[in-house]
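Chapter review: from sequence to fold.
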Amino acid sequence: HEEEPASGAATTPASSRPSPGPSPDTTIVVPCYNEAGRLRCDDFLSFAQNTPETHLLFVNDGSTDNTLALLTGLQASLPQQIEVYDLPRNVGKAEAVRAGMLRGCDRGSNFVGFWDADLATPLDHVGMFRHVFDAHPQIDMVFGARVGLLGRNIRRSMKRHYMGRVFATLASLSLGMGVYDTQCGSKLFRVDHARGELRGVLGRPFDTRWVFDCEMIGRFAALRRRVGAQVVRPRVEESIYEFPLHRWEDVGGSKVKLGDIAKMAWGLVQVRRKYVWGQWPEGGTETGAGGGEGGGSRAEKTKKRAKK
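The token string follows.
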């Protein structure tokens, strides 16, 4: 999925109000940019037909090929469960995912996540992720992890494997927690509508183009530090479950290149500086997912004390 520089402003169109209908238990966001050559429509349709509790939300990120036509055909086949969210221009994967996940929250889903359009992670893992939430009520996030264990079928080139291990080490250092695989394109989040934590994480456009997955973790951690005095919440690393995938295939056509590792590393520096060393959201608040009285940045509090 090709990335475009973030504009710094929300890109959700005015027509983003959820379509009427019952709230699905789970919404899976599938960002698409020029995916016509590798979109497995039959697999998506079969999954939707067999999992009526799950809603597929395809976000067309300003594609210039035949992607939109294929997605429209999918929606026409099963409109109760398949929705196409057409962004007027290409804004990059991070913003496409953010807009889609916000739409899933608006629909009242209990679980919202995102899945790469190439189905490198098969869709049957959605059910496996949901079982983790059922078995572990304290878990708020389930991330796919590409671990080459015996009995698993993880098909990944050696080059991408070692690139991934280098990046995972940098990500763990940046976030201050041992994460095995932050960049796997299959993730599912619990939606606590009363607390609004996920909406707080998604409420502002991401600052990083390449590592928004890590930025989401950083935002969760920053919000929980801010509400810690009022609400007992587990640390973020205690709320994440990395699920070793049963199958994963390195699908051709990925747009990530070796040189992008440097850009991703710089993104991790930004994440650490803003969400680990700094206080986020700047000028935010401290109840719920960051809303209420008593907040404000460290600098603002210092100014208030100086005035007194």
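Two observations follow directly from the output. The chain has a mean pLDDT of 84. Strands lie at 26-32, 54-61, 82-87, 111-115, 141-145, 153-155, 186-190, 240-244, 247-249.
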